[in-house]
Amino acid sequence: MSNGPLNGIRVLDLTHCIAGTYCTKLFADIGADVIKIEEPKFGDSARWLNLFGDDKPNSEKNPLFLYLNTNKRGITLDLKKNSDIVTFKQLAIKADILVENFRPGVMVKLGLDYSVLERLNPRLVMVS
After folding, report:
1. Quick one: 10-127 is in which CATH superfamily?
2. What is the pLDDT of residues 83-113, one digit of tens each?
3. Nearest to 25 by CA among 78, 66, 79, 81
């Protein structure tokens, strides 16, 4: 979406499942440029939620995932690989907001906690 009150704001979305992903959906719906970052093997866990009781959830057609991620761009990064961490940091330099909903301590373990990212981008707002 190119119009809206958040036009020109870039959000990095490191969320999964529902609550955090819904938060970033709201940013996207009102004009922010939201970049959804998923891990390579399985992606966001919302892709695999079995909403209708059948035995075949489809990661590309899951209606909840599609709803929660409309108006977002996406990228796959393995934040345990140095090359992908470099890419993530390049994105963080140009971002205004970072939203993550990992367990406490995960961002520290990845070397991507606020104290690190704030040195790269002092204006970055990080929400957990």
Report:
1. Crotonobetainyl-coa:carnitine coa-transferase; domain 1 (3.40.50.10540)
2. 999 999 999 999 999 999 999 999 999 999 9
3. 66
